Amino acid sequence: LGWKFYDADDYHSPENKKKMAEGIPLNDEDRIPWLCALHDTLRREDSSGQNAILACSALKKMYRRVLVSGASAIESNQPEQPGENTALKVLFVHLDGPINVIAGRLKKRKRHFMPPELLKSQFDTLEPPSAPENFITVSLEKSLPEIVLEIESAIFQG
């Protein structure tokens, strides 16, 4: 697509990385500053007219609201009022698959701070996207070319 790519893992604080490396799951308090920084990155790209892709485990609905609207999403579940900082247009791609498939992929990662043992905590935290969120769900059991084609189709149709 020629879009900038960001890996949200690169934006975790040293404290978050250390915590995960020790096998301790992150909580909301750990994640909110990280999500706000990611929102700021997406906002900067949007302001300059650039599209971007962010790989991020936005496990909860609230986390996805922070990515779209920033810190204001934490304080209120109300839609933004006219004249406020408008929400970003984001298509969330929920890559869905069985825990054993994802665990197998995690075990193949080298030199990553999050051990595969934390995967269950992520599944326990997961709130899959639902209406009215702007999202698609794509099966991880498809081939990589099929996954990419499905995502590209959703981007260009929506």
From TrEMBL:
Pathway membership, UniProt: Carbohydrate acid metabolism; D-gluconate degradation
Broadest EC class assigned to this enzyme: transferase
UniProt-recorded name of the protein: Gluconokinase
SUPFAM superfamilies to which the protein is assigned, alphabetical: P-loop containing nucleoside triphosphate hydrolases (SSF52540)
Species of the source: Ibidorhyncha struthersii
Listed InterPro entries: P-loop_NTPase, Therm_gnt_kin
Cellular component aspect of the GO annotation: cytoplasm
Top-rank taxon, per record: Eukaryota
Keywords for the protein's UniProt record, in alphabetical order: ATP-binding, Kinase, Nucleotide-binding, Transferase
Name of the gene: Idnk
GO molecular function: ATP binding; gluconokinase activity
Single GO BP term: carbohydrate metabolic process
